[in-house]
Design goal:
The complex is a heterodimer. In chain A, about 75% of the residues lie in helices and about 5% in strands. Chain A is mainly α. In chain A, strands 1-2 form a two-stranded antiparallel sheet. In chain B, helix 2 packs parallel to helix 4.
């Protein structure tokens, strides 16, 4: 039941926020904050009391693979049930959702002044949808949550977003986001149905259940097509170049809270989807597809980084850096060694913190300067109190400075993938250089250079300072002592690795190399 | 020994106090926090060093915690204290403390003193981790950390745009080297299954045969990292621009400590380089070429800090040369001596610069020796050590050892390059001193020079001056247990004596020629180099052989072109074609819905006709 509550709490909280607006503007903010604190507290409780060192694959294949599970029939005729399950990976990502949810509420405290109740309804429903995605292991339910979280996000961008220059309106950005993700979701639905019918042909029964569908025997060609359906859906969300077009617009036009959630959590649903569904359901096809996926990862690293260098809009710059970082994630996932997969988890968490930090910084800059155009900035160091210091920290995290979690994430992926695909890793390492270029360009354009005025802007207030300090602390904590996190996801990642390596043309290739 | 973590925790604590003060600390208290934390670290280091040497053990390992553990990837936060790291932490905290002390004087009245000392302390912290780390990943942490601090301190005067770009350049160029180093780590971990330095040194000869391509490649990649950090060819272009930072920064980071990290790295991983003799020779060759090219470049600079910057490059070239001939201990010895006398030179330059109201161009200085006696003394003692004045200076002993080792190892060519370099060093050192302190005062800033006062200003200069003389050379770094003995060590034959005399003569001839040229022929020289082929040569040296210009054309501009080409997200544009197509179809089809009855009637009639026609034909 706890798992169900994890999903229900944000939804109920959202409704309360909506109605709570009757009691004044502050009420929805506090309700939303309380809701997300509750989600985080429950998740931390689950982490504290649960055992995540599960045996990965039992010889019978019938081992206890979930720390918690909850199932109730939904549409029995088609074998659809509300089946929720929790393991280390989903736990970590839900905790992340709870934490970034709190940040999203906090950073909208002064930014959002219109329709506050409805804003928080949308915000909490996104978060509820995301929690659902991380918990659902019935494919139909997964699809349901996957699509469900798009709608409130659409409203968030369309109603509370900023309009940019050159016809980049918030409505247009919201529409682009919606169409991209909706269309790709459709492909996933087709793939899910294809898998279900294949299973039907084999067993004579409808089932959307994860464990059942994993056993479905598939011909190579069919598996490849079905896998591609999943992959494209996740690739749009991650995003993988060339399917990334929605991201910069959505980020640039979204309110700060929307960007924090987009970068921090929504992108992670894609990586989660690959780890949970695309790889385990179609290990052979994924293996065969791995070189292409890694190639796309490389393309993303370079393309995102190069574009980030050319942006004038601060939030667009950060958006493109996300694309670049997600290239590393993609490489790590399809390298599939234990170290690389753990690195993927690490980088997901790290990127969630650092990107959230950067977006909050740009939100705070916007509140003070009323622009995101870097040509109108420059020389801000010394005029903004402690804000530039925090910018510097998150910029350093984003360029992979050792000591931050981002460094460990990237390094684990690269160390883990190197024995299998040395050349991919060598090329990806070039991304470390480009990361330095775009990160320092940001510093140079925003904070260094001749000041464009004399006036000093307001220093961070206590709420803002506390947010930034917490994020900083977490990035450093996971950068220097990541073991609790790694232990939590260890079993889940080992399982993915074993499923993936069961076929292992890549690892045999590597042995041939040695 | 259990106090060892305190050496870097103290500067870290200083950084944290300063960073979290949010402007509540005034400039004075910031300076006190910064100086005292490093001072205490120096005291702890002295205590540890005393006990370490006293105990006579070869090395002490201390694991604080396991950084992370996934499969057999288990880097630790672990420290190793041995003769090499002890020497390094001695230089870092000792010289670092003196420079911090001097900086408290130098930074008086500057904006952002808190920021300055926060970054300086963070630098000391990172540098200590770099040399104390017992595994490559922790070393890499320090390695990148010092790079970041260097970036921040070069760009300290951020309000001048050029400083920001100088800092940017420094970080990016060294980062390029770091990428090579990172790939080197991936390779070593794959091949040797460990990142622990002691285990690497132990396993490398077991796994790799001498000259194995993996060993060559690993050594080459590590060398890439070292070249970036230590500003050696071809990744040297950042160092001269790095002089944009405050002068104490140049003294600490860009002379005494960080730029020598590459030397430390190669010495630390000597076991890998021993397996790759070709790469080891390349190290020496790069050192030789760098020391010559940088020596010529130093001759043609007018900014006193840039002279010192090129001289630093040149001196690190000597260290690389020593590494290349297998004389690791000589390299580290020269590293230490260079730390003393170059820090002295930079601090004296700082004293001149502050006294002359931030004038640092030789063309507008001159004649200062009477007004700034202490700075002059610093320049003379430091310059003598730099030019390796025989017998009385520290630099003579360390440089002599390098030359002898090169000869003893059979690398006569490298030794010759070193000799020519010594001649060049004497020339540019004298040009620097004479241009700054002799002749007439060439600007109001020089005429109104105000000498620095106080213990904070004087003490660091005096201590470093003492260390730059033969007294400094008496310090004997305990390296025997860590580094292999080189072929020429302990041999004191006639060859060594002859070479010593030749080297001494070279240095003296250089000094004599320099004195004659720059004291009596300065004006003639300046005129000579402004016309004809001499002007072109001068321009080439002044621009350090044009590397910057070439890199700008070959790398920076194409990169910027590429960025501009992609700026509008071409791939996204391509996918948007689908949207345009849909839009076009929509426009086309909406034309048919015009609301005009006769068009509808006509279309309907045409449709009926068509259907009937089809029926008739098919029926």
């Amino acid at each position: 039941m706890t798992l169900l509550w994890l999903i229900l709490i944000p939804f109920i909280g959202g409704l309360l926020c909506w109605q709570g607006e009757r009691f004044g503007e502050q009420a929805p903010r506090w309700i939303a904050l309380g809701t997300m604190l509750m989600v985080l507290a429950i998740t931390l409780g689950l982490w504290f009391y649960g055992d995540y060192h599960l045996p990965s694959l039992d010889p019978q294949g019938e081992a206890v693979r979930w720390t918690m599970e909850w199932q109730v029939a939904w549409i029995p005729r088609f074998g659809i049930s509300i089946h929720l399950a929790l393991d280390g990976l989903s736990l970590v990502l839900i905790a992340l959702t709870g934490f970034l949810g709190i940040l999203a509420v906090l950073c909208s405290w002064h930014e959002i002044v219109h329709r506050v109740g409805f804003f928080h309804l949308n915000l909490l429903w996104i978060l509820g949808g995301v929690v659902g995605v991380f918990l659902a292991i019935d494919l139909f339910l997964f699809f349901f949550f996957w699509e469900m979280m798009l709608v409130p996000m659409y409203f968030l961008i369309a109603l509370w977003g900023h309009s940019g220059s050159k016809g980049r309106t918030r409505i247009r950005a919201a529409t682009k986001f919606f169409i991209y993700t909706q269309a790709s979701g459709l492909l996933m639905l087709v793939s899910i149905l294809g898998l279900v019918f294949a299973n039907l042909a084999h067993t004579g029964e409808y089932s959307f259940d994860y464990a059942t569908l994993m056993q479905t025997p598939l011909s190579d060609g069919l598996a490849m097509w079905l896998m591609l359906g999943f992959f494209i859906a996740f690739a749009v969300k991650l995003p993988v170049v060339p399917l990334h077009g929605w991201l910069p617009d959505a980020h640039a036009q979204a309110p700060t809270a929307g960007s924090v959630d987009l970068a921090g959590i929504l992108l992670k649903t894609a990586a989660y989807g690959m780890l949970r569904f695309a790889l385990p359901l179609f290990p052979e096809a994924s293996q065969a597809f791995a070189p292409v996926a890694m190639g796309l990862g490389l393309l993303g690293i370079y393309y995102g980084a190069l574009l980030a260098c050319g942006q004038q809009d601060l939030k667009r710059l950060i958006a493109y850096t996300s694309i670049s970082h997600m290239g590393f994630v993609l490489i790590g996932i399809y390298a599939g060694t234990e170290l690389a997969l753990q690195g993927v988890v690490m980088l997901m968490v790290a990127h969630a913190f650092s990107a959230a930090g950067l977006f909050i910084v740009s939100g705070q800059l916007y509140e003070r300067l009323h622009t995101r155009d870097m040509r109108e900035m420059g020389g801000l160091w010394g005029r903004l109190g402690s804000l530039p210091g925090f910018s510097l920290f998150f910029v350093a995290a984003s360029l992979g400075m050792p000591g931050t979690a981002n460094f460990l994430g990237e390094m684990m992926i690269l160390f883990g993938a190197f024995p299998l695909v040395p050349w991919v890793v060598v090329l990806a390492s070039g991304g470390l250089l480009l990361a330095a270029i775009y990160s320092l360009l940001l510093m140079q354009r925003v904070h260094f250079g001749p000041p464009q005025g004399k006036e000093h802007f307001a220093d961070l207030d206590r709420r803002e300072y506390l947010m930034m300090l917490t994020l900083t602390g977490l990035v450093l904590l996971f950068g220097l002592y990541p073991q609790p996190l790694l232990d939590t996801t260890g079993a889940a990642m080992l399982e993915v690795q074993q499923l993936f390596e069961g076929v292992a043309p890549l690892s045999s290739l590597a042995k041939g190399n040695q | 020994m259990s106090l060892l973590p305190l050496t870097f925790l103290l500067p870290l604590a200083g950084t944290l106090v300063l960073a979290l003060s949010r402007g509540r600390l005034g400039p004075r208290s910031s300076a006190v926090v910064g100086v005292v934390s490093v001072g205490l670290a120096a005291l702890v280091t002295a205590w540890i060093g005393w006990h370490f040497v006293d105990s006579g053990v070869g090395g002490v390992d201390m694991t604080l915690w396991t950084w992370l553990s996934v499969g057999d990837f288990r880097p630790t936060i672990g420290l190793r204290l041995d003769g090499l790291s002890l020497t390094m932490i001695g230089i870092i905290t000792g010289v670092g403390f003196l420079i911090h002390l001097f900086a408290a004087w130098y930074m008086q009245g500057e904006a952002g003193v808190t920021r300055f000392f926060a970054f300086m302390n963070l630098f000391v912290f990172s540098m200590l981790l770099l040399v104390l780390g017992d595994n490559m990943l922790l070393l890499f942490l320090g390695w990148e950390g010092v790079g970041l601090c260097s970036y921040l301190l070069i760009g300290y005067y951020y309000w001048t745009e050029a400083n920001g770009w100088a800092a940017f350049k420094a970080f990016i160029v060294t980062r390029l080297g770091d990428v090579f180093l990172a790939i080197g780590l991936f390779l070593m971990f794959r091949e040797l299954g460990t990142l622990n330095i002691a285990e690497i040194l132990q396993r490398a000869p077991e796994v790799w045969a001498e000259g194995a391509w993996q060993a060559q490649l690993a050594a080459l990649l590590i060398l890439g990292g070292a070249l970036g950090k230590s500003a050696q060819l071809p990744l040297h272009t950042w160092l001269a621009d790095a002089m944009a930072g405050p002068t104490p920064v140049s003294a600490l980071i860009h002379a005494a400590t960080m730029v020598t990290a590459g030397v430390y790295l190669i010495a630390r991983l000597h076991g890998v380089f021993e397996l790759a003799p070709g790469v080891l020779y390349l190290v020496g060759l790069i050192g030789a070429v760098t020391l010559l090219l940088a020596g010529f470049a130093a001759l043609a600079q007018t900014d006193i800090k840039r002279v010192l910057a090129y001289s630093t490059m040149s001196q690190i070239g000597y260290m690389f040369l020593a590494l290349g001939v297998g004389a690791y201990d000589a390299a580290i010895f020269h590293l230490m001596m260079h730390g003393f006398f170059k820090a002295l030179l930079f601090l004296s330059a700082g004293a001149v610069i502050v006294s002359c109201h931030h004038e640092q161009d030789m063309r507008r200085l001159g004649g200062l020796w009477r007004r700034l006696p202490l700075a002059y003394a610093g320049f003379v003692v430091g310059g003598a050590a730099l030019a390796a004045l025989p017998l009385v200076t520290a630099g003579f002993y360390s440089k002599d050892e390098i030359l002898w080792e090169a000869l003893a190892a059979g690398h006569g060519g490298l030794m010759l390059a070193g000799l020519i370099g010594a001649f060049l060093t004497s020339l540019y050192t004298l040009r620097l001193i004479i241009g700054t302190f002799h002749g007439e005062m060439k600007s109001d800033n020089a005429r109104h020079a105000e000498p620095g006062r106080g213990l904070v200003h004087g003490l660091p200069l005096v201590v470093l001056a003492v260390l730059s003389t033969f007294l400094g050379a008496w310090i004997h770094p305990p390296l025997e247990a860590v580094l292999p003995t080189s072929p020429g060590a302990g041999v004191h034959g006639a060859g060594h004596t002859v070479l010593g005399i030749v080297a001494a003569a070279t240095s003296l001839v250089g000094l004599g020629l320099g004195a004659w040229l720059f004291l009596t022929r300065w004006r003639w020289l300046s005129e000579r180099v402004s016309t004809g082929w001499a002007a072109r040569l001068w321009w080439l040296w002044h621009n350090a052989w044009g590397f910057d210009i070439a890199y700008d054309r070959l790398l920076v501009r194409p990169y910027r072109g590429l960025v501009r080409l992609l700026e509008s997200d071409l791939i996204d544009r391509l996918l948007l074609l689908a949207a345009w197509l849909a839009w076009g179809l929509h426009r086309g089809l909406s034309l048919t819905q015009s609301g005009k009855m006769r068009y509808y009637a006509a279309t309907m009639a045409a449709g009926v006709t068509l259907v009937l026609l089809v029926l008739v034909v098919s029926g």
